[in-house]
Amino acid sequence: MKMLTAQQRLNVRSFLTEQGLTFSPLLEEMLDHVSSDIEDRMHEGLSFEEAWHQMKNDIPQNHLQHIQIETMATINNRFSVSRALSILALALMFGGITFKILHYPGASELLLLSFAAMAGSFLSGTVSGIYFHKEKKGAARVLSIVAGTLLLLVAYTFRIMHWPGADMLVLLGVGVSLLSFLFNTIYIFRSSSPNANLLSYLHEKHSPGIERFFLILLVPVAILKMITLPIPANAFLGTIILVTIIYGAGVQFFALTWRLLEAEVARRNVLTFSALVLSFTCFILVFLGELLGVEIRLVLIMLFSIFASWLTYNIDPPKNFLLKGLLILVPVLFTANVLLRLNFLPASGTSFVFNIIILLLLTAGVFVSTKHEATRAFLIVSLAGYLVEYTGKLI
Amino acid sequence: MRKLFADICIYQLYLRNLYMMESKEFIRGILKPLILSLLSRKKKMYGYEITQRIAELSKGDIKLTYGALYPILYKLEAEGSLVTTTEIVDNRVRKYYSLTAEGKKMAKAKVSELQRFTDILQAIIEDSSKPQLSVG
Description:
The complex is a heterodimer of chains A (395) and B (136).
Chain A: H1 6-18, H2 24-43, H3 48-58, H4 63-78, H5 80-101, H6 107-132, H7 139-160, H8 166-190, H9 198-228, H10 239-263, H11 270-286, H12 294-315, H13 321-341, H14 350-353, H15 356-368, H16 373-389
Helix pairs in contact in A: 1-2, 2-3, 5-6, 5-9, 6-7, 7-8, 8-10, 8-11, 9-10, 9-16, 10-11, 10-16, 11-12, 12-13, 12-16, 13-16, 15-16
Chain B: H1 2-41, E1 45-46, H2 47-57, H3 70-78, E2 82-89, E3 92-99, H4 101-128
Antiparallel strand pairs in B: 1-3, 2-3
């Protein structure tokens, strides 16, 4: 039996990508299908070029794209409960903010219900995923991430409501999250078959929805923040949403990083492992909030931006000039912010760090990074963080 | 004479295309029971293998459009009728489908449903081919 060479397989893969196949499980399956077909034709006496040409003629225009749309529609219907809950969470979140602006009673309750809907969406998506894909490995790892996130959601609910025990829950949430991130990272660096990993499989299916969810949250909050300037940051109504976006988009960033590393063995090395562990450790520790001094949190944010930016540049390198520039600018901004807040730089420097031009550049970065999911998630975290820290004037 | 022969060939080609087009929708409708039926006879199969088996068993009359079976396979997997396993074959990932316990039940039900439907169709066709009696 004639087999395709590595280069020929690469040609088939690029052809399928050019045809619009982006959903990786389907892409891999079509790659096997097309390769088997070409090999069968070669077995009947055709050359690779002849078989390749015949095969291409058998595929009608835009056909593969239609197949992908149909497949995605099938999968998305499965998770309708999860999607309905995520829409409810968005509506409740915006309702809560509107109530707060208009000084209506029940604003906090709406925010809490929004958290509950978010938790429900996350839980139903993952639990149904575990149930329907028992053959895949890693249900415990998926559940550990769910547990860490839910604990943090509950802990922050306790904080908002000033209920006792909030600090204990925050500590527990941060601890469980750190461990779950570590287990997943170690698993990814030792893994040999990406398709068997339940976490990657579920994340790939939900990833577009997760990204959409945080973008829908981010855009109005960014506008709201700009309107309410120069109200001090701690009085800013949308800070709670920005913190939610930072956590969600941050987890999305690490999940994407795991998937990219899982798909490409060559990218797994001591440096990427160290950068990944350091970046998620710094990221999660920030959520200890007031349990840590503000200076320590600022330094952790700065370190996260440095490690995560380096990681993004190495595993999801953008070709776009703006995106390349932003991956350098973001760590510079958060470093300058630390120096300003710790009075190592004069207060007059604030307007160089926080101004409308940088804000627009970061926003533009989020919108042009459609083909670089990890870069986009990193920029969403950065933009939300930038908005939290933004206390100066707009111009 | 040569022209007549060419015309016949064109007509036959036209009929075949017409048959292929009309049968496309029909095949789409029965693809689910066909896949389930094939999988109930074999422990596990991959996408290309299923396409080839259908073409082979139908002596080439049922040719699926490229990749047309994948949305159905993903649907059956999402419904819990199929489970997948992956293997590395010839340096590429190969995804195998097999029936779950629920899928086995579904395969039986769908195949007998299809069988019943063909029996009904057969009865109608046979009846309509008989000479009609005019009443009244």
